[in-house]
Write a structure and sequence with these properties.
The structure holds two protein chains of two kinds. Chain A is mainly α. Chain A has 14 helices and two strands; from the N terminus they run αααββααααααααααα. Chain B is α/β, with parallel strands linked by helices. In chain B, the strands form four sheets. In chain B, strands 2-1-3-11-4 form a five-stranded mixed beta sheet. In chain B, strands 6-5-7 form a three-stranded antiparallel beta sheet. Classes of the chains: A mainly alpha, B alpha/beta.
Chain lengths: 370, 546
């Protein structure tokens, strides 16, 4: 053994010892910071429950603890796992972010949903288990709003048909095509609140609104757009559709422009009529884009609230009420935080189940077609 | 004064000047104005001096004007506070920023106060829509971060009821001359559980505005048999049914009677059922009319309230075709002012709009009175209807008005507490309140001294108009059987859920008036149980002074 190799072995062994020590320190940082953070949360929870007093003025220590834990966790990962730890750093911040802004609020929401919590109550929130859920099933206002949502969602099919028609029109060689494209997009740029006032409260106003006047001039004796349940629903749907159809249209137009022209040209050469070309070629090729447009539109539709709140407040007799506008009243006007949160949570579950089922249905249909 | 009222008054003045259409008349007007101003300042009278800032018809007041008013009305503060006494004190004031008034005025008014006392005020400005949520969240989360608050009296249950407010010291009562308040703002409404917390800066009530031409038009009078404005709900119901099929004397369109708003308005729509119900349900011998004070059992399904709901159901076929979608705002400003309907109950300011608004066609034919009464009144204690010798009137003191309150945050610090109350007293002083009553401020008159019509006339206002506009308010404010709003926690929750049920009921989905009323009562019971029945009973009694 030479002196050189001896010193090399020594250096290697020192480096290994250093790495081992660093790994231990890293693991200690990870375990220690995690344990400290858990203890901090526990202390805050115990104080909030009135079991013990630690002098926390508010929940900010938990927030600061979370950030500190995140930093120590990152350092610990690098020290304990070296290169793999560095790679983990690409994921860790995103994970921490998702935990803080998605997972934690969801669990907090679930917890609040299981409380009897009216902001005006002097006793504050009281855990009531599934009482809110049971009450929800007996709440005729909520089920009425859900029933209305079914109607509104079915209307998406009509919106899709109109949007597709407009997209085909704007994809064709027509005069001033660019101008039309911009013109058709304008409603999308308008705030639904502005539309509520400009259209719902002004143009459709029974006495002075131009649309009402026009209706009178063509023989409708007493034109009312929000007095009869079905006319009111259709009026709300028309305003919402006017704002949102351009959104579907622009997605479909983009899809149409991406279609290979050779296919439709070949069909024409083979003698296909315009309708055959559309139904046998264009429509099937557009299905993936169509499904995306429809799913996105349904998700937006399920959140419909602003126009309803501004124009009808859910009336007449709840005919235009949506789940979101009902929850808005439960929260804003009645400060019913626990029950309102349960309504929102239940609706979230319904939406997830419905959209998942819809996607599966579309996927199966697509697979069958392909 | 509410901004729109001021604008309408100014528009009226302008209209009159146009009517004169002559240099001579304008010259005479100028001479009159000069002589009045000269007289006011010659008297050295603070009230006349502040009414001349900026002067009637001289544009909207600015921050400089507010500061001048604040400076001129500082004498009361100087009598109780030494110069620089509050040096180093910082206070936080939470209030509204509606229409660039409220807190904006308070800033100007308090600037001279800050300069004199040495205190500094930090401001939390809130939009009306954010106010309730911010207040409730502060209370619920135990983070009341303001020392002084501008607050509506109905929220006293949420604040005073939870021990969050500081009791008013006696020297403040003297400084602001509380005896000058109109009757309904004195105890018990002016107090909470026998203690005084509120420095009132506003008054609110509903009054009845009606179309006089409906009672002179030959065709309508022949059809209805009525030549005088109705004074009871029984007369109004009869008139509303009989006038259907006639033509409006002004617009030539279809004629309609009393306009009930059938659509909710964030809880505020319930006040309009109260307008009808108060005459039936508010017995002169009993301050309670919405709940039984001993049990919090809702009275909303007793025969009096059921009668009020039945009246509305009976009236629906005679109302305009889109009435189911008409909220109170629509009913007042898009229907009544525009010539649809012969009568409406609303806050005091709608009357002046009717007289002068550009979009109003009813200006020359409008009349005012306190809310209609009833030939019969329900005695809840006896469980029976009574027929008094004269109709039972019970003006609806809807919302009660805004006030300035000091929170418990300052209670432990004598210097800070005195500073907070001094600032609040400056804003609620007798003289400064005359200015807020006369100029755009967001507040209506609320003191007996505000109804000295000569003072308004001397300042340049049209006396006949002001007297007409204010008279119905004054009569309501001082009525011995005024229906007072319960200042219990969550009162707007009760109203909001009632609106939802009423909307279904008016749309014919809930059956009879009794079934509608029962449904509201059931919802109210749930809210009471959720907030806490025992505490609600205690607070309800406290709000009624029982």
């Amino acid at each position: 053994m030479t002196i050189g190799s001896l010193s090399g072995d020594l250096a290697t062994s020192r480096a290994a010892a250093g790495r081992s020590q660093r790994r231990r320190l890293g693991r200690f940082l990870i375990i220690g910071s995690t344990a400290a953070f858990i203890l901090l949360i526990l202390a805050q929870v115990l104080q909030a429950a009135g079991v013990a007093q630690f002098g926390f003025p508010n929940w900010r220590p938990t927030l600061y603890g979370y950030v500190t834990w995140g930093v120590l966790l990152a350092i610990g990962q690098i020290m304990a796992r070296g290169e793999a730890g560095w790679r983990a750093l690409f994921i860790l911040p995103a994970g921490m972010f998702v935990a803080a802004f998605a997972i934690f609020p969801t669990f907090a929401g679930l917890l609040i949903a299981m409380t009897d919590w009216n902001l005006s109550s002097s006793t504050g929130p009281r855990f009531n288990g599934l009482d809110n859920l049971i009450e929800l099933f007996q709440d005729r206002f909520y089920w009425n709003a859900l029933g209305n949502m079914v109607i509104y969602v079915l209307m998406v099919a009509v919106e899709y048909a109109i949007a597709f028609g407009l997209a085909l029109l704007l994809n064709a060689e027509i005069r001033a095509r660019k101008l039309w494209r911009v013109a058709f997009l304008i409603p999308l740029m308008l705030s639904p609140v502005a539309v509520s006032w400009m259209v719902g409260k002004s143009m459709l106003e029974t006495r002075f609104g131009p649309i009402a006047r026009f209706a009178k001039s063509v023989g409708w004796q007493s034109p009312t757009f929000f007095a009869d349940p079905w006319i009111a629903r259709l009026s709300i749907e028309a305003m919402d559709a006017w704002v949102s159809i351009p959104f579907m249209m622009i997605l479909l137009l983009a899809g149409l422009q991406a279609l290979p022209k050779e296919v439709s040209e070949a069909a024409k050469v083979d003698g296909a009529t315009g309708w055959q070309g559309f139904w046998q070629i264009t429509f099937p090729l557009m299905l993936p884009v169509s499904i995306t447009a429809i799913i996105l539109r349904i998700i937006f539709k399920l959140k419909l609230a602003d126009i309803v709140i501004n124009v009808t407040s859910g009336g007449p007799g709840g005919a235009t009420d949506t789940v979101s506008s009902f929850i808005y009243r439960e929260y804003r006007d009645r400060s019913n935080v626990g029950y309102g949160t349960m309504l929102a949570m239940f609706y979230l579950v319904l939406i997830i189940v419905f959209i998942t089922a819809l996607l599966n249905l579309f996927n199966k249909r697509m697979q069958r077609m392909s | 004064m509410k901004v729109d009222v001021y604008n309408q008054l100014m528009a009226l003045q302008t209209g009159r000047r146009n009517f004169m259409k002559g240099v001579a008349a304008l010259a005479a007007g100028s001479a009159l104005g000069t002589s009045l101003a000269g007289r006011a300042f010659a008297q050295g009278n603070v009230r006349a001096d502040i009414l001349a800032i900026p002067g009637v018809g001289k544009g909207s007041p600015t921050d400089a004007d507010w500061q001048k008013v604040g400076e001129l009305t500082l004498e009361a503060t100087k009598a109780s506070v030494a110069e620089g006494e509050f040096a180093g004190v910082e206070l936080t004031f939470m209030g509204l920023n509606n229409q660039n008034l409220h807190n904006f005025l308070f800033r100007g008014f308090l600037k001279p106060w800050e300069a004199y006392t040495g205190a500094k005020i930090n401001w939390i400005d809130l939009a009306q829509a954010d106010y309730n949520a911010r207040l409730q969240q502060s209370i619920a989360s135990g983070t009341v971060d303001f020392d002084i608050i501008e607050m509506g009296a109905p929220f006293e249950g949420d604040t005073a009821g939870k021990g969050l407010l500081d009791e008013m010291p006696d020297w403040v009562k003297t400084q602001i001359d509380m005896d000058d308040y109109v009757n309904y703002l004195k105890a018990p409404v002016g107090t909470w559980d026998g203690k005084t917390y509120r420095i009132t800066i506003d008054g609110d009530c509903h009054t009845f505005a009606y179309r006089k031409d409906y009672f002179t038009d030959p065709a309508i009078t022949a059809a209805t048999g009525m030549t005088e404005a109705p004074t009871t709900w029984q007369q109004i119901n009869e008139f509303t049914k009989k006038v259907k099929g006639q033509k409006d004397p002004l617009t030539g369109g279809d004629a309609f009677g009393y306009l009930d708003p059938l659509k909710g308005w964030g809880g505020f729509g319930f006040y309009f059922l109260e307008d009808r119900a108060s005459a039936y349900a508010k017995h002169p011998s009993d301050p309670a009319w919405l709940f039984d004070a001993d049990t919090m059992k809702p009275r909303v399904n007793n025969p009096a309230w059921v009668q009020a709901i039945q009246d509305v159901l009976d009236a629906v076929p005679s109302l305009p075709p889109d009435q189911i979608n008409a909220d109170p705002g629509t009913t007042a400003f898009q229907q009544f002012l525009a010539g649809t309907g012969s009568g409406i109950c609303w806050w005091g300011d709608v009357g002046s709009n009717a007289k002068t608004s550009d979009s109003s066609v009813v200006g020359d034919v409008v009349g005012f009175s306190i809310n209609p009464g009833s030939d019969k009144v329900y005695n809840s204690a006896a469980g029976a209807w009574e027929t008094p010798a004269t109709p039972n009137f019970a003006p609806n003191m809807a919302y009660l008005g805004w006030g300035i309150y000091v929170t418990k945050n300052v209670s432990a610090d004598d210097k800070k507490r005195k500073a907070a109350w001094s600032a609040a007293a400056h804003l609620g002083g007798k003289d400064i309140s005359l200015w807020t009553a006369a100029y755009p401020s967001g507040f209506q008159p609320y003191r007996n001294s505000h109804f000295q019509y000569d003072e308004w006339a001397s300042a340049g206002y049209d006396r006949a108009f002001v007297e007409d506009y204010l008279g119905s308010n004054l009569d309501s404010y001082n009525h011995p059987n005024a229906a007072i709003e319960p200042r219990i926690p969550g009162i707007f929750q009760y109203y909001s859920v009632a609106e939802d049920v009423l909307a279904k009921g008016f749309a014919g989905q809930l059956g009879t008036a009794q079934e509608i009323a029962d449904a509201i009562a059931a919802e109210w019971e749930k809210i009471t149980d959720q907030i806490g029945r025992d505490s609600q009973i205690k607070l309800y009694k406290a709000s009624l002074g029982l």
